[in-house]
Automatic annotation (TrEMBL):
Taxon lineage: Bacteria, Pseudomonadati, Pseudomonadota, Gammaproteobacteria, Alteromonadales
Membrane topology: Multi-pass membrane protein
Protein name: UPF0056 membrane protein
Cellular compartments per GO CC: plasma membrane
Protein source organism: Alkalimarinus sediminis
Keywords: Cell membrane, Membrane, Transmembrane, Transmembrane helix
Amino acid sequence: MVVLSMHELSEFALLCFTSLFAMINPFGVAPVFQPMTTNMTHQQSRQVALKASLTAFVILVIFALVGKFIFDFFAVSVNSLRIVGGVIFFLLGYELLQAKLSRMKTDQVDDLESYSNDIAITPLAIPILCGPGAIANVIIFMHDGETLLHKLVLVGAIAAVIAINYLGLVGASRLLRFLGDSGNKVMMRIMGLIVMVIAVEFFFSGLTPIVQEMLHPKAV
């Protein structure tokens, strides 16, 4: 039987929270989120933020519980996920760089609702919030958690970071609206460049280990 001290548990909780916070980066998502919801009312953008946050929470918890099994079953590596995430990030960054996202045709209610549902799932929930780093983190922490209490602490850390993410999206979107149309376009292009740089890092951080393994295969 594993005996836990409050100190050990608090250290594990802090490690889970800080690692996930750094990977998800709630405040870094806001400048990407706001241009996508420019043509929406505050209530509509708030619903998108809520749906994206809840979706991200559910996905992270699912991966924490069965992620290792899924990866092993399909023989999928986290590095492959990094490559795919990098490609999606790059395409998103290119659209931001061209300032296209705020010009989506959302005149009809049905189109706006469909667009809201689409961006809440992809790219907001996946891969921006649930990126390869966050998914790998929850899988590793769940594996390292020796007791049920450890695993509950991990779920609590995920919930806390996602809650902060939601509040950050709602609050930051209000602030960014004061920039106006010109300010939004400038912000979109700056963030597009940053997102594309992040995408390249994601892509090569996944590709490099795969290439190295191909060039220097481990002896069986």
